[in-house]
Amino acid sequence: MAKINPKFLHLPKHKRDQMIGCCLSQDLKQQHKKKSIRVVKGDSVKVMRGEYTGIEGKVEKVNTQRGTLSIEGIQREKVRGGNVKVQIHASNVIVSSLNVEDKYRKDRIENVTTRTVSPSQQRVTRSNSEIKAKTVKTRKKGRENKEKGG
Q: What is the DSSP-derived secondary structure letter of residue 92?
């Protein structure tokens, strides 16, 4: 069994949830212009590392405490009989298709691809000469104030 990273033990849930992200497949990266995304129940994933490499299935359960996923079709037999779901860490999988039944998630994914920056949000860029001129003026003012006071 994998141990829980001590950093995650006392984190609030919203911080732990952010850490359960994994990479998108190449076609999803191009489509949504994102590299990674938070995994949710219903996403189709492909295992890239470990004993179950190459197996593809849907996410049945997300364990935020450990950062692991329970994937459809990945089981192992117990010694005394019966099957047990194997937990795969989120960093060891790639998302091959997204579950967009959730309206909020769908809007967030689409907004990233169509986001435009309004003129008021654009950064004002200044040349180096403008910045240097401003700093020289403030230095001169500081000297003048010292001379008057001293």
A: G
